[in-house]
TrEMBL record, chain A:
<keyword id="KW-0539">Nucleus</keyword>
<dbReference type="InterPro" id="IPR012295">
    <property type="entry name" value="TBP_dom_sf"/>
</dbReference>
<dbReference type="GO" id="GO:0005634">
    <property type="term" value="C:nucleus"/>
</dbReference>
<keyword id="KW-0238">DNA-binding</keyword>
<keyword id="KW-0804">Transcription</keyword>
<dbReference type="InterPro" id="IPR030491">
    <property type="entry name" value="TBP_CS"/>
</dbReference>
<protein>
    <recommendedName>
        <fullName>TATA-box-binding protein</fullName>
    </recommendedName>
</protein>
<comment type="similarity">
    <text>Belongs to the TBP family.</text>
</comment>
<dbReference type="GO" id="GO:0000978">
    <property type="term" value="F:RNA polymerase II cis-regulatory region sequence-specific DNA binding"/>
</dbReference>
From TrEMBL, chain B:
<dbReference type="Pfam" id="PF00382">
    <property type="entry name" value="TFIIB"/>
</dbReference>
<dbReference type="GO" id="GO:0017025">
    <property type="term" value="F:TBP-class protein binding"/>
</dbReference>
<dbReference type="InterPro" id="IPR013150">
    <property type="entry name" value="TFIIB_cyclin"/>
</dbReference>
<protein>
    <recommendedName>
        <fullName>Transcription initiation factor IIB</fullName>
    </recommendedName>
</protein>
<dbReference type="Pfam" id="PF08271">
    <property type="entry name" value="Zn_Ribbon_TF"/>
</dbReference>
<dbReference type="GO" id="GO:0006367">
    <property type="term" value="P:transcription initiation at RNA polymerase II promoter"/>
</dbReference>
<dbReference type="GO" id="GO:0008270">
    <property type="term" value="F:zinc ion binding"/>
</dbReference>
<keyword id="KW-0804">Transcription</keyword>
<keyword id="KW-0539">Nucleus</keyword>
Length: 172, 313
């Protein structure tokens, strides 16, 4: 999952967009942006009246850029002079499975300055890695969710760092 | 006759090296060698009045200030006008003549409020003074650090109470703290994590045994059932039959199993009510534990309902 932002550089009339576009929803009382969805790279975009847009749900960086361009095209077709400035990926989320159950209690004992495990609040252990600044959610089943990365390499690096640690806490 | 020696100390003229015994009650300094009274009219620091020990004095006259801890309140040299004694302190209408309207210690007003809140909350769940004191200390540390200044003081107070219980080895579930506080569990949890980060402390993980005595006595279960439930829960966690389940749910299911096997049966709803877990949660954990019931019970347990007849929800 990739979350990115882009600046269309023109003030938008959200009412008009919501009326003319096909897959758009707009409740000004609830949230101040139009929520638009496209099917092609299955993504959702939040379009604000200032011209800034947030695009979420893409599966790869190129897909995110492509989807953002498609949204910009839709806005352009509606008559606004949309541009495509400052496309930036803000967050990347990845998930994986190490295929063995993990002893979370052991992990929180040894890595207590990075881990936070509170079974009453959340069933997974929250590991805040320092070196690539990534947050990992580690579950008993062996599934791991990594988030907070700006580039793909950070996710891979974080996983390479955590894998040996998890192996040492394998349950058997 | 005190003769000034080369030092500014008084000393006995015959025995300049002798140690002087100080008798403050009589205001004397007496030479230890010859008994000569060397200093006199030294200021008497004894008490000005006599207090008899059998007198039931609710105000101890030798104390001139309140006994409250200045450690938690900043340098407490401020004074307040006390309530009037005697008839002269009332004005014409019967109201007190001097109103103590001045706001004392405005910077610590929030502290005092929070301490009162912590004390109220602790009172509702019967926590001992040690936990309340620890919670107060934690709150003061957080308050001084100022990085959680934006959070509601009640939330910080609730979270510090939670941490204090944890640190003393008698954790209370978040839901129990929620019950005596008006802050949501989410907010208390958030403040809890922030406080741990701010104070750079850690807490131990909760275990099932921490809650057994409390839940079982609230349900009125005999100690045999409680011991059995403790054993069941510990074995269940050791054998890892219930991976990923919150220890509270496992404890609740263990209590259910133990109570169903003994004379005092309790329904899942009752246990869920006491423990703060939903009865479907107990059902889920129970379903995981039921197949291993034989290994879980302690060896010397007297079954009034044998394992085969345990309910299978």
């Amino acid at each position: 999952n990739i979350v990115s932002t882009v600046n269309l550089n023109c003030k938008l009339d959200l009412k008009k967009i919501a009326l003319h576009a096909r897959n758009a929803e707009y409740n000004p009382k609830r949230f101040a942006a139009v929520i638009m969805r496209i099917r092609e790279p299955r993504t959702t975009a939040l379009i604000f009246s200032s011209g800034k847009m947030v695009c979420t749900g893409a599966k790869s960086e190129d897909d995110s850029r492509l989807a953002a361009r498609k949204y910009a095209r839709i806005v352009q077709k509606l008559g606004f002079p949309a541009k495509f400035l400052e496309f930036k990926i803000q967050n990347m989320v990845g998930s994986c499975d190490v295929k063995f159950p993990i002893r979370l209690e052991g992990l929180v004992l040894t890595h207590s300055q990075f881990s936070s495990y509170e079974p009453e609040l959340f069933p997974g252990l929250i590991y805040r890695m320092v070196k690539p600044r990534i947050v990992l959610l580690i579950f008993v089943s062996g599934k791991v969710v990594l988030t907070g990365a700006k580039v793909r390499g950070q996710i891979y690096e974080a996983f390479d760092n955590i894998y040996p640690i998890l192996k040492s806490f394998k349950k058997q | 006759m005190a003769s000034r020696a080369r030092l500014s100390e008084v000393c006995c003229p015959q025995h300049p090296e002798a140690h002087l015994i100080e008798d403050y009650r009589a205001g004397d300094q007496i030479c230890s060698e010859c008994g000569l009274v060397v200093g006199d009219r030294v200021i008497d620091v004894g008490s000005e009045w006599r207090t008899f020990s059998n007198e039931k004095a609710n105000s101890d006259p030798s104390r001139v200030g309140g006994p409250e801890n200045p450690l938690l309140n900043g340098s407490d040299l401020s004074t307040i006008i006390g309530p009037g004694t005697g008839s002269a302190s009332f004005d014409g209408f019967g109201g007190t003549k001097y109103q103590n309207r001045r706001s004392m210690s405005s910077s610590d007003r929030a502290l005092i409020n929070a301490f009162r809140e912590i004390s109220n909350m602790a009172d509702k769940i019967n926590l001992p003074k040690t936990i309340v004191d620890r919670a107060n200390v934690l709150f003061k540390q957080v308050h001084d650090g100022k990085n959680l200044k934006g959070r509601s003081n009640d939330a910080i107070a609730s979270a510090s109470l939670y941490i204090a219980c944890r640190q003393e080895g008698v954790p209370r579930t978040f839901k129990e703290i929620c019950a005596v506080s008006k802050i949501s569990k989410k907010e208390i949890g958030r403040c809890f994590k922030l406080i741990l980060k701010a104070l750079e402390t850690q807490v131990d993980l909760i275990t099932t045994g921490d809650f057994m005595s409390r839940f079982c006595s609230n349900l009125g279960l005999p100690t045999s059932a409680q011991k059995a439930a403790t054993h069941i829960a510990r074995k269940a966690v050791d054998l890892d039959i219930v991976p990923g389940r919150s220890p509270i749910s496992v404890a609740a299911a263990a209590i259910y199993m133990a109570s169903q096997a003994s004379d005092d049966k309790r329904t899942q709803k009752e246990i869920g009510d006491i423990a703060g877990v939903a009865d479907v949660t107990i059902r889920q954990s129970y379903k995981l534990m039921y197949p291993h019931a034989k290994e879980l019970f302690p060896e010397d347990f007297k079954f009034s309902t044998p394992i085969e007849l345990l309910p299978q929800l």
